[in-house]
Queue: 4 jobs
Job 1
Amino acid sequence: MALYGPDVSNNNFTNTAAAVNFVSRLPGEGFSWIEEKVSEGNYYRDPYWAPIQEWCAANDFPCIGYHYVTTNDAASQAGAWRANNGGDHAMLDFEANSGDIANFWRVVNAFNAEGVQISLSYIPHWYWQNIGSPDLTGVPGLVSSSYFGHGNYASALYPGDGGVGWDAYGNATPQIWQFTDGALVAGLSVDCNAFKGTETELRALLGYPTGETISKPSNEADQVSEVWDQLRGPNGQGWPQLGGLTIVDALAQVRDKVCGTNDYGKAGQ
């Protein structure tokens, strides 16, 4: 049975609240991951990547950002990704106006030089043909596209595990198939993908090799938030495994039992 995940970008949302509402509904509707645009060329940064990525990190929901490849200088494209905190794993969107296969590899190498691993490569069959049907051997995580209807739920539109979107081309076999450009997902009509495998295999493909979440962007505000969470517990309500106590309160109880003190350091009677 296939797992499903939508592909979205700034084109799908009108504001941050709409983006967060969309991603927050995905687990309840049976989706297993999300692909969200991070950057394009060396000139565009998607404003909805940060809130979607942050929600996914906080809720252990797999996500991966993608970069739309252009013919701009490859290093500057990798710089645009980094400037929008795209993370250490990326999906390349290689289609209209992305250049030839040599440009694809230039961008892969530029991202690698920035410490970013390419996990997925969206190279649709039609564009592969347009650029001369090059050899795709070694392309990381090939993603194909072949659309089968729209205006219905993803599971209803998916043609099945034997569908044409799984056929190999360019000496590479698709790992993910974008099978519709109009699935009904969380109240919107969006592109949707299928993956044939387990949740664990999906996580590994997206860059979660041990089943862990991708870290939140490293900045001062996030670090302060993380420290607060560790001290106070989820939402400041204490830690369930400590009986609802904070770390400080739990340590105080341990001290009282070991040292016989109470009332924050006064000798016990």
Job 2
Amino acid sequence: MKVLVLGGTRYLGKAIVNKILQGNFFEIATLSRSKEKRKGRHFVCDRKNVEDLKKVLVHFGPNIILDMINFDEEDSQVISELHKHGFLSELNHYIMVSSFFVYNHFDYDSFSEKKLTKNFNLSNIEGYTRRKIQSEVKLYSSSLMDISTILRLPFVFSSDDYSQRFQHLCELSSTDNESFFEPSFKYSLVRKADAAEAIIKVFKSSPMGIMDLSNVGHITSKEILDTLKRLSNQIKRRVNPEIGSFPYFVEKDICLNSKKMTINISIHDALKIEAENYWRSK
């Protein structure tokens, strides 16, 4: 089975690729705009360049595509057209990574693991979330959707998060400041290593349409810091992050409860594992 990861050179994508390489689950290749030195095949290609992308797809002939970098409707349009015109003749499963932030704008109970409404109003939706919504909707009407899984991922965290979000939480937990978090909204987090294992299981499944990837339990910002504070008593030095810089804000409860795949580790246990990894590295 041949897997092509569009992206796959950073963070979650990199973790997925490394797990596959360690376990020899599949023949795997990655694609990005920059050169990559690692075991396994890598194609240097801008996925916005249709002709170059077409050449890679025909040459490698993937059975599964994990698309970590489908960021807008043009990306969905291009991959759908290439499938429609026979350039993905070996493809059995296309997996697009979307975002649970769509539920900031659509009712979770109504749209959980379902297609979004086609007559949505984008006037109050901006940036990354707007583009993810548009890319999802573009995919719905294509023949590619018949063999697709759209993954709406929670916040992915780890002790080596390149964005420094989780590391910043650990530092916040060593302060006494109570003004960094929203006390009431509950939402979903998932540990990077657990998300990588779950997505590899998705590779081995049949296409699932739209899937939320959920963890066991949900948590508020206050509970995150309280959990980390209990674990950080050994930290003596104090930091003074800027007010309002809590890195995981949401606009309402977004508690993902997947009917299709759940990661069987509680968020509190996942936080503990990554916090201990972070503090050991200090």
Job 3
Amino acid sequence: MKLIWKFNLVLLGIFALGFLVAGYVSYKALQANAREEVLQHARIMMEAALATRTYTAAQVKPLLDTQMQYKFLPQTVPAYAATEQFNELRKKHPDYNYKEATLNPTNPRDRAADWEADVVNVFRSTSTTTEIVGERDTPTGRTLYLSRPIQIKNAACLPCHTTVEAAPKTMVDLYGPANGFGWKMDEIIGAQIVSVPMTVPIERANKTFTAFMGSLAAVFIAIFVLLNVMLYTLVIRRVTNLAGIADEVSLGRFDAGEFKATSRDEIGVLTEAMGRMKASLVQAMKMLEG
């Protein structure tokens, strides 16, 4: 096998290994960054929901408490306010979702779906768990969800949810006596769940990965071509010329050409040495003939 083929095989092996390693590392990093971006959006949405709940409890509910004797106003409920706020958001961004999933809700729309109930039960079974992050497939694509437990920590919540008799009559008239009762202090009754689509960030990460790998392949090809040109110019062509002249001299054709060094590198030194060897051989042959 010729020297240039051996060199190219080794070079291709190195390039292939580097390409695969760079591809694996960059793909993992881009996917992780995309997921972190989605998770950051989910955290911002969760904080917005908490801010809405706090504002409703502190500033809206006190203003409407007197009217609650005549008509139950769900706008005074922090969970209702947070959900309504995100329903407005979903008019423009339908893939985003916020829900206060509850196992035994007063408002039927808050009832936890099967997978949401599983999240709530994780919080109920492990009280030290304060946050759950996961992914699930939906009809619109992959979605990341962030959830935090809803725990009864304020005794002011209990009058509406302990027994039907203790609850405001206006609330019972609106939602009925079947659901939303029997809650206890410090009990985890549900979970705040924010769902954020991963499709756009993942697609952006994939496009970035494709562009990066294409650029890397172009760089590898350029380096491969340049190294081959350099190898041929600086080594292969000169060695081939030396080998041709040496072959002719070995057959006794001393007029085949001269070993002329054009540089002071290793091949130049070898050329000078072969030139001296040829001169010595010619002189020795003349002495034998004389």
Job 4
Amino acid sequence: MSDSDTVGDADVAGMVATCRPEWRVTAYERADEGTDFVAFVDCETPAGPREAVLKATTAGFVRPEVARAEPRLYELVGRETSIPVPEVYGAVDAHDEFPAPFYLLERVGGENHESDPTVLAADVRERVCRDAGANLADLHELRTFDRVGSIGVRDGDLAVVPNDEGGPYTDGREWVRDGVDSTLDALAEGTCFPDLATEPERFADLVPALREAFDERLAAIPDPDPPRFCHWDYRWGNLLLDSETGETQAVLDWANLSTADPAYNLACVEYHLLNDGDGPATRESHRTALRDAYAAGREDWAFDASVTERMETYALLKRCDAMACLPLWHEEKDREGRARVERLHREAVGAFLDG
């Protein structure tokens, strides 16, 4: 039983009342997806019935100081950019009775296509990529930082704090090096989630060649750009869409935000949104839509050789991260389903190493 399973009716009612004392819960439904506790809540309010989303940090994958940043980031992004995000109704950093941090959020319309985005037509998915480029440009224009790290809360305010590798880092190349080492070590030793891994040495045979490739690339990698806000988990599962047009109605999950080279964020989002199963022409049209929209939103920005070279290295690291996280990300798949994912990863890594 997970910690989220221990959250009961009285807890839900109490957390909502803590965020909004004048609201009363009339019904709620737990979300099927996600690791933390998330519930869709129907409330009676002085202004009439209202639907909301209640999220509490229960799984332990996100440190409390990082989880506390999420509602603050929703408010910042909603206030200072045109990125569509839900309104925050209330947030609590710590509580003696209820699992915390927790917050109450507007429930936005739109559909989620995490399970199979390919049900959407190619031109609809191209619109999603175009919106992603514009949204990332908006995010990256907010501000620059002098360090690479996670976004957390210190003394009540947003701050750059250590991430899983350590830090914060004043040199982004050191952060990449540590990320490569920890990811490849995980692949060699049984993935990032050995307790879930049915085949812990699934990718171990690839590690020596990957170490050699990264060593060569990191020795010559161009200097990264100054760190900016990075929503590296901008993926289908964190988007609410108009399924007819592809318009992004909301970008979700602002926990685990980091500061990083913008090229890293772009490489992550291309990895998440471009489908391995599409043909080369479709993938290239989607990539072009994302990059053109991004460049249009960034003053004095261009996808020059330095940017694209860094993106290639970051994309390989993102691929390796996904391989190391396969037991968790594809926990619901059977043996054959995981084998299909493995084949796609091996084909992509092989093409990269051969190229």
